[in-house]
Amino acid sequence: MDQSRKIIHIDMDAFFASVEQRDNPALRSKPVIVGGLPNSRGVVATCSYEARKFGIHSAMPSNIAFKRCPQAVFIRTDMKKYKAVSRQIMQIFHMFTDLVEPLALDEAYLDVTENKFNIKSATIIAKEIKKRIYKETKLTASAGVSYNKFLAKVASGYKKPDGLTVVPPEQALSFIEQIPIGEFFGVGKVTKEKFLNMGIENGKDLRKLSEETLLRVFKERGRLFYQHARGIDNRRVTPNRKRKSLGREITLKENLYLIEDMLPVLQQLAEIVSEKLIQENKMTKCIILKVKFHDFSQQTKRITIEQHTNDAMTIYRHAEQLLKAIQRNKKSVRLLGISTTELAPMRTTREASFETINMYEQLTLF
Ligand SMILES: [Mg+2]
């Protein structure tokens, strides 16, 4: 069994609701429900811990939530806001490793076996990530640390909110024994019922079933249950496929003829593209300008530069040169676009300071 990896699962606490409570102090310590409004056919996306006390949970129809807790504050989902916070936390993860596999806006696996700071202990990295998330977003996250995805994920949900649970290899089997059957990977409502009917309530019970029995009842999934009950999970942390290019186009309010008139638009495009690159922790080596003319014909020109950049001014200067080199045949322009390819990860310039670490911790923590 592979116990050499160090995997962290990070999950923000009551994410959408916490963002709303952060941004509106009047909502703090109140039951807050983000998602569909009470008299709509919507459902609860996230609710605050105060609302959970009333038995409200995600995916519950909002009008049922309203019946259970009429005094709750209902707020419509504001994805734009949550996505911005999501980008902040993903950037923090990428400071430590590029082996980041997001599961949702507020949740990801990280493989930190090897990491950008050569920190041996995944526990220290998890602490540092939680600290940085709080510092930058004023929100709390819970982390689970172990040698595989299954255990890391269960561990992160173990002590919420603001939790940190570490399951080192030598404690895995005893940890698994107490995991409720419903929390095993691949167990939904129906499967849970099936297990309960078989008298299987937790990991300890699950381990008593033979692989043959599990395969017979649950087909291929049975093999996973068999392995997970024994602390075996070899699934890799797989980052989303790398983005190959990144850019933005703007259709002009009116067709333009003079280059001077196009330059402010070009500058705006360069700033947007630069911002996107920085948000994704990327730099580019190739800048492409696209020009669409009034008759919908178009031209593109590209330049490969010597050093990677994500600087708006540099991108703008190159785009300006490309624009001047375009053969226009006196046509007016209706659309301009800048895109970038040959992307590379941005070097971490922010130095990490790990005040929380002392040598003893380094040596003893998983
Ligand atoms: Mg969450």
In this entry the ligands are: magnesium ion
State the major sheet. 5 strands, mixed
CATH fold-level assignment of the largest domain: Alpha-Beta Plaits
Helical residue percent?
Answer: 25-40%
Note the run of SSEs as H and E. Answer: EHEEHHEHEEHEHEHHHHHEHEEHEEH
Structural class of the secondary elements?
alpha+beta
Attribute tags:
single chain; 366 residues; alpha+beta; Alpha-Beta Plaits; DNA polymerase, domain 1; Dna Ligase, domain 1; 3 domains; five-stranded mixed sheet; five-stranded antiparallel sheet; 14 helices; globular; binds magnesium ion; cytoplasm; DNA-binding; transferase
What does this structure look like?
- This protein is an alpha+beta fold and 366 residues long.
- The protein folds into three domains: 1-168, 2-Layer Sandwich (Alpha-Beta Plaits); 186-229, DNA polymerase, domain 1 (Orthogonal Bundle), CATH 1.10.150; 245-342, 2-Layer Sandwich (Dna Ligase, domain 1), CATH 3.30.1490.100.
- The chain is 38% helix and 23% strand.
- The protein contains 14 helices and 13 strands.
- The chain has helices at 15-23, 49-52, 62-68, 79-96, 122-137, 149-156, 172-177, 189-197, 203-206, 211-218, 220-229, 259-279, 312-325, 359-364, and strands spanning 7-12, 32-35, 44-47, 73-75, 100-104, 107-111, 141-146, 164-166, 245-256, 282-293, 298-309, 333-341, 344-345.
- A five-stranded mixed beta sheet has the order 5-6-1-7-8. Strands 9, 10, 11, 12 and 13 form a five-stranded antiparallel beta sheet that branches. Strands 3-2-4 form a three-stranded mixed beta sheet.
- β5 (100-104) and β6 (107-111) form a beta hairpin.
- α10 (211-218) runs antiparallel to α11 (220-229).
- The longest helix has 21 residues, at 259-279.
- The protein is globular and about 80 Å long.
- The model has no long low-confidence stretch (mean pLDDT 92).
- It binds magnesium ion.
- The site of magnesium ion has 5 residues, from β1.
